[in-house]
Amino acid sequence: MSFSSTAKDEICTLAEERDCCIIAELCAFTLICGNLSIHSGGVSIKYNTENMTVAKRIFDTITRVLKMDADIEIKENLLKKKHSYTIVVKNATLLLSILGLEGNLLTDAVPPREMTEKECCATAILRGAFLGGGTVSNPKKNYHAEFVAGSEAFAQVLYSILLKNEIRAKIIHRKQSFVVYLNEGDSISNLLALIGAYSAVLNFENVRVLKEMRNNVNRAVNCETANINKTVNAAMAQLESIRRIEKEIGLENLSDTLREAAELRLEYPEATLSELCELGGTTKSGMNHRLRKLNAIALDLQHMNKS
């Protein structure tokens, strides 16, 4: 199962006790995945989903909580090797009235203001929107969660609720839909916790910790490799300079301190600057100054030969 499906299955196990929140969640379901259908008998509303637990939650809410009649249709998608579920409520007028969406064709509808202003119901709206049209990527791959809304108006409602809960999000227009998306680890973790996917939060955070540890190790290794390469390159340049001096003027013509530094580098070609300091009984700045002086002398000799 995908990370999204697992999170949705977990959320669907939550038992919502407040009637207002049950209505708010179903209202979001309706605005995300509800479609009106006009027929000879009147107007019905259909909910489409590929998640069985989500379909069961919608069906139970309508039939068991709201005491309304509903049918469920199951279709097999051979191409995707999945089933799709359609919940049909024939009395759409009554249902829309209960949800506070009466007289609406759902194209630009939004939840009633009293729902969005009530903290518990606003959270239920997010939960319903996620179950109906939300996804969250596997954190092992990338950090991304989104709600796909059919209208800009409802996308703005979701964005505002997230903002009130200090969850950073953005809105983009994709094809015929408006997408509210999150691409920061903290925001996604906070969203999952807010809508009740607590096990998903733990799994998400475990992956984040492992990724951060791996990144820290990689950074440390890369830094150490860079330092080693820098040390090796510097030592090779110093050896080349010392050999040039030895060949052209002889090390015996150097001052005692420079000759000692040159002989140490020749004897210990792979030693670090700190190790050379210990062997020579001097400070880092002192040893570094001597090695730089040797490089400068070799460079002067090179220029003299060219001229």
UniProtKB/TrEMBL annotation:
The keyword Cell cycle applies. Residues 123-214 form the WhiA LAGLIDADG-like domain. SUPFAM superfamilies: Homing endonucleases. InterPro entries: Homing_endonucl, Sporu_reg_WhiA_N_dom, Sporulation_regulator_WhiA, Sporulation_regulator_WhiA_C, WhiA_LAGLIDADG_dom. It comes from the Bacteria. Residues 217-298 form the Sporulation regulator WhiA C-terminal domain. Residues 19-93 form the Sporulation transcription regulator WhiA N-terminal domain. Keywords: Cell cycle, Cell division, DNA-binding. GO terms for biological process: cell division; regulation of sporulation. One of its GO terms (molecular function) is DNA binding. Involved in cell division and chromosome segregation. NCBIfam families: DNA_bind_WhiA. Belongs to the WhiA family. This is Probable cell division protein WhiA.
